[in-house]
Amino acid sequence: MTSYAAAGVDIEAGDRAVELMREWVARASRPEVVGGIGGFAGLFDASALARYRRPLLATSTDGVGTKVALAQRLGVHHTIGLDLVAMVVDDLVVCGAEPLFMTDYIACGKVVPERIAAVVRGIAEGCALAGCALLGGETAEHPGLLDPDEYDVAGAATGVVEADELLGADRVRAGDAVLAIASSGLHSNGYSLVRHVVLGEAGQRAGLSLEAEVAELGRTLGEELLEPTRIYSLDCLQLAREVEVHAYSHITGGGLAANVARVVPAGLRVVVERASWTPPAVFSLVGSVGAVPQDELERTLNMGVGMVALLPEADAARAVELLAGRGLRAWVAGTVEELDDASAPGTAELVGTHA
């Protein structure tokens, strides 16, 4: 007799995964959450938005790319959950929105309860760090589509911002300072390139191994590559409360210049001085081992900058101080300038050489 289990779907394993993750999900909550894990839909009490004059809801969806392949190879799964939260909620904070709640989706070849629970643990920890609730999720077992040890993750989050406090290109002015906020490493972009370099022929020739210590990194290569993406949400929200922030740019796929250009209005350009910082060693390692040109690295990786704030020059020093107090390194990396043609599209460019 044919059964669902014979087709490769283990319902009992899924139930066990839910029980293992229950404790972690309970820790990622907010007062507005109604009910708990196991419902058909997550519920959030929207009456809390009554304090807003004109609340705008913001939403974002993302994943973590091929970084999951390294997590699977090394058997370390909870950090991927942190990465997922960072990729989603920090796209919300760019417009000044406070993350309210998040949902996740995990597709896997085989439900291994401890593995799924580890991923959800990381998601729950990330939600707590971002101040948002983990309101629901789905784990889908796809035998035959994914190998037993393979999985992928995605998530979506919703936030809220007061309409007249919306951040973005409309607020940016000539003379604004470009404040760079340090990344924790590679974050979650460019891993197809990174894996091709360090796990391919070039990496083998260089004697690289995920388990081996790399002197310039001060730890194993695997530990460096799985360093969780920094979650900036609460830091950026607090900064915007204390100084006049005009725009944020989350430095993800496409690199520094391309992402900053997304918040630059017509008639202006952002000039970022490479001399203002030295990228962490992992970026030069990828470049040197893989013979990756500088411009290709900058189009693919964050080069040590995870978030950028555009703000009045007079507020820059205070912003650096405030972020330092929250454990974040930040520095003035450039300025906003006028273009000769006021109707030309806004741009961003990197100039000079790194220190």
Detailed description of the structure:
This protein has 355 residues and is an alpha+beta fold. The protein has two domains: 10-34 and 54-162, PurM-like, N-terminal domain (60s Ribosomal Protein L30, Chain: A), CATH 3.30.1330.10; 169-351, Alpha-Beta Complex (Phosphoribosyl-aminoimidazole Synthetase, Chain A, domain 2), CATH 3.90.650. It contains twelve helices and 14 strands. It has helices at residues 11-27, 67-74, 78-93, 113-130, 191-198, 201-205, 221-225, 233-242, 255-261, 281-290, 294-300, 316-325; strands at residues 33-34, 43-44, 55-63, 98-108, 133-141, 151-162, 177-182, 213-214, 219-220, 247-250, 268-273, 305-311, 330-338, 347-351. A hairpin with an 8-residue loop joins strand 1 and strand 2. Helix 1 packs parallel to helix 4 and helix 3 (78-93) runs parallel beside helix 4 (113-130).
* Count of separate structural domains: 2
Look at the structure and give the mean pLDDT: 94
Oligomeric assembly: single chain
Number of helical stretches of at least 4 residues:
12
Strand order of the largest sheet: 10-12-7-13-11-14
Share of residues in strands: 15-25%
Just give the CATH class of the largest domain. Answer: Alpha Beta
Taking all Cα atoms into account, the compactness measure Rg is 21 Å
Structural class: alpha+beta
The percent range for helix content is 25-40%
Low-confidence stretches: none
Tell me the overall shape: globular
- Briefly note the CATH topology name of the largest domain: Phosphoribosyl-aminoimidazole Synthetase, Chain A, domain 2
> Do you know the CATH architecture of the largest domain?
Alpha-Beta Complex
Order of helices and strands: HEEEHHEHEEEHHEEHHEHEHHEHEE
Report the span from N to C terminus. 69 Å
> Could you state the CATH homologous superfamily of the largest domain?
PurM-like C-terminal domain
Strand elements, count: 14
Major sheet characteristics: 6 strands, mixed
